[in-house]
Write a structure and sequence with these properties.
Blueprint (H helix, E strand, L loop, with lengths): L2 H19 L18 H18 L11 H5 L15 H19 L19 H26 L1
Helix pairs in contact: 1-4, 1-5, 2-4, 2-5
Length: 153
């Protein structure tokens, strides 16, 4: 598997999402549309949080985002359960923008390295496999984000 292709696909998927949400008015960022469980603000934080878990924690590396993000954006969370102010939209966009580069800098030439966390929901065994499941996860959420944007338009 070519590193350059995996990193390109990851960045392409991420940039498409960032581009689509970039024009969303601030008053719609935390709206939970009818028929959905979460807001677009949550979606962005969730992508950042899950990507961190899959890329860094599965590989046995230190988290590159605050631990508190799991409370807001981890699997099974929702904005209606938030008791504190979540990380700001603009901060999430900045972190989402830089995260792919951090992943590439960390894992270039290491896609065949075994994961430290052998028991993971993705059944991934290598860094490259983990990054592929992350791209799949992110693509799934891209579809949800697209649907939410249409409802909110």
């Amino acid at each position: 598997m070519r590193d350059s292709y995996v990193f390109w696909l990851m960045l392409r998927t991420r940039n498409n999402i960032i581009q689509k949400v970039s024009q969303l008015p601030a008053e719609k960022r935390n709206v939970i549309p009818e028929g959905f469980n979460n807001s677009l603000h949550w979606q962005l934080g969730h992508l950042l949080t899950v990507t961190n878990m899959i890329a860094f924690q599965f590989a046995g590396k230190e988290s590159v985002i605050p631990e508190s993000y799991k409370t807001f954006f981890g699997s099974g969370t929702k904005p209606s359960d938030w008791t504190q102010e979540p990380p700001a939209w603009d901060a999430l966009i900045e972190e989402l923008t830089s995260q792919c580069k951090v992943i590439e800098d960390t894992f270039a030439g290491k896609l065949e390295d075994p994961l430290a966390v052998k028991e993971n929901f993705a059944k991934a065994e290598t860094v490259g496999e983990a990054l592929l499941i992350n791209i799949s996860h992110e693509s799934s959420h891209a579809g949800m984000i697209n649907a939410m944007l249409k409802v909110l338009a």
